[in-house]
């Protein structure tokens, strides 16, 4: 096989995880705002109505929770300006493309350390998985949480590169990193420390001044948000949570105790990180590098490790009040995977001669295995999230019994692009079922309803079913319909992961039998409700009311304190 053909084959293999990643993203992504996404619509209103450039600048950089999300707002305005409406799928796409920006950086590091293109193959398999599902399908978070990582890593790389132009670019990119997420304030100080350790005092001082200016600008007019509960965790629990955060990539490994696996792998990665950092500090102190780029690689990896470990401390301190399990959630998992990728550099770069290809081949096998585990494990999360988003939109759109969207001709109402959602086909069926008890063409609804339990507690309706079996994806599944004299509500049911490994990997049975839902009364208006099941099975829809009814008294709404 010629060298050119081999190169094309390697490029094709590298593109496989990229294609799979965006294919899965496209299958589940919706133009529906989630939580903080709504603030971007408010930003467009504020920016459009701003009378001066100072007011426009204030709208871009104003505080959002503990963050400055200028990068989100810039891309939001660009999307709105280009297309005439805002589409959250576009924002998700931009965020996911920012995630891709890490791969060329690893290519540069490997290439300049005299490694073949083949050495890059494990990286996209490790980096592009469904483990990041929450950020993947959340417009604002995709740009913020993926963008800050990519910008931070490139800032470190530019800062430790001795070329003068790179220092200016590092400062500019560092400023953009600070304007993307609160964690970005770490980057320029970290870069200053790296250059100080390397003996470049002048550049270190410039970066320290730039970092101080960035931190001052960040906290100018800053107000501490009152959103996170105080942590009551002990020191041991905090350490355990920190290790789980560092090892959270291991959640998808098919073992019984997923949190325990994360803790164990976190301890391993922490020790590896300390070992790498100690080795780098020793080499820097001796100032003996046979190849110029080895120093750049060492400084970059030390900076990445400092960034990851410091971020872990901040996240654990700020989020432990929500429970330790929350520290391995999807939105934080990227730091664990990044630490794994830094460790990969220190496994591969020192290898020379005929041992290189067998080592990389073995690592590729492990990377592909991890990639498969991740998609199988987190597909259920993506499925449940899509159902949550679609039903949430249904409930805020249809607030009357006629299932008509109230006419709103205001500027704000026209900002978000109107895109069709599958539940629009339900509307005539819901009205028919509300009158006569049944509508549609899905079979075995009577048996399904009979095997489902509805239990009313003090503050919520609990729905349980242990018999339902279906492996259909996307919008298929079971939904709960509530009907009062004033309006309808639709709520999703959640599926659980199939823990039987043979069924999961050999038969592609992602879901365990049954479904469940907990519908808080705080999300309902006061009234008496009939209860129905909606079964969506491919293109078939069936709706069935039976005798179950619930009565909801006035319940106080659970309102989260925000500063936006």
Description:
The protein has 564 residues and is of the alpha+beta class. Among the domains are: 228-351, no CATH class; 398-414 and 423-552, Sandwich (Immunoglobulin-like). It is 55% helix and 11% strand. The protein has helices at 3-28, 38-49, 53-61, 70-83, 88-100, 102-112, 122-127, 133-136, 139-160, 164-178, 187-197, 201-219, 235-246, 258-286, 292-319, 333-348, 356-397, 427-436, 445-450, 501-506; strands at 63-64, 67-68, 438-440, 452-456, 460-465, 477-483, 488-492, 515-520, 527-537, 540-552. The strands form three sheets. The chain has a five-stranded antiparallel sheet. The longest helix has 42 residues, at 356-397. The radius of gyration is 26 Å and the shape is globular.
Summarize the structure in short.
By secondary structure, the chain is of the alpha+beta class. Helices cover 55% and strands 11% of the residues.
């Amino acid at each position: 096989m010629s060298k050119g053909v081999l190169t094309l084959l390697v490029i094709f293999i590298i593109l496989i995880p990229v294609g799979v990643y965006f294919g899965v993203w496209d299958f589940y992504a919706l133009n529906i705002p989630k939580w903080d996404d709504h603030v971007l619509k408010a930003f467009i209103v504020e920016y459009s109505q701003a009378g001066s450039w100072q007011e426009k600048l204030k709208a871009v950089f104003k505080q959002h929770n503990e963050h400055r999300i200028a990068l989100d707002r810039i891309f939001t305005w660009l999307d709105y300006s280009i297309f005439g409406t805002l589409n959250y799928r576009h924002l998700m796409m931009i965020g996911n493309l920012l995630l891709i920006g890490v791969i060329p950086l690893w290519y540069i590091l490997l290439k300049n350390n005299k490694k073949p293109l083949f050495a890059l193959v494990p990286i996209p398999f490790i980096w592009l998985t469904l483990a990041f599902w929450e950020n993947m399908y959340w417009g604002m978070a995709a740009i913020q949480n993926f963008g800050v990582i990519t910008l931070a890593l490139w800032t470190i790389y530019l800062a430790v590169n001795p070329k003068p132009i790179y220092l200016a670019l590092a400062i500019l990119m560092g400023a953009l990193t600070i304007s993307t997420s609160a964690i970005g304030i770490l980057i320029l100080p970290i870069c200053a420390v790296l250059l100080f350790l390397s003996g470049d005092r002048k550049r270190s001082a410039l970066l320290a001044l730039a970092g101080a200016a960035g931190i001052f600008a960040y906290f100018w007019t800053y107000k501490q948000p009152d959103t996170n509960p105080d942590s009551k965790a002990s020191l041991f629990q905090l350490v355990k949570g920190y290790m789980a955060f560092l090892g959270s990539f291991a959640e998808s490994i098919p073992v019984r105790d997923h949190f325990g696996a994360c803790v164990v792998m976190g301890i391993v990665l922490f020790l590896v990180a300390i070992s790498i950092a100690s080795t780098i500090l020793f080499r820097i102190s001796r100032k003996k590098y046979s190849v110029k780029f080895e120093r750049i690689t060492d400084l970059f990896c030390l900076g990445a490790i400092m960034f990851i470990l410091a971020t872990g401390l901040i996240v654990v301190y700020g989020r432990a009040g929500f429970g330790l399990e929350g520290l391995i959630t999807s939105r934080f998992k990227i730091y664990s995977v990044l630490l794994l990728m830094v460790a990969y550099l220190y496994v591969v770069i020192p290898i020379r001669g005929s041992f290189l290809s067998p080592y990389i081949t073995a690592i590729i096998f492990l990377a592909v295995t991890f990639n498969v585990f991740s998609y199988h494990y987190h597909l259920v999360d993506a499925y449940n999230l899509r159902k949550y988003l679609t039903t949430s939109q249904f409930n805020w759109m249809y607030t009357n019994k006629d299932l008509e969207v109230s006419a709103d001709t205001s500027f704000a109402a026209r900002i978000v692009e109107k895109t069709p959602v599958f539940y629009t086909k339900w509307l005539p069926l819901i009205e028919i079922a509300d009158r006569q008890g049944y509508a549609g063409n899905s079979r075995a609804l009577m048996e399904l309803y009979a095997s489902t339990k509805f239990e009313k507690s003090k503050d919520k309706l609990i729905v349980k079913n242990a018999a339902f079996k279906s492996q259909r994806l996307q919008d298929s599944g079971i939904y709960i319909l509530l009907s009062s004299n004033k309006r309808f509500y639709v709520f999703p049911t959640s599926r659980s992961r199939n823990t039987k490994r043979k069924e999961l990997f050999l038969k592609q049975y992602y879901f365990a039998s049954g479904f469940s839902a907990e519908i808080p009364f705080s999300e309902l208006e006061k009234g008496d409700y009939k209860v129905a099941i909606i079964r969506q099975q491919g293109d078939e829809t069936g709706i069935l009311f039976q005798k179950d009814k619930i009565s909801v008294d006035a319940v106080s709404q659970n309102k989260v304190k925000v500063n936006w």
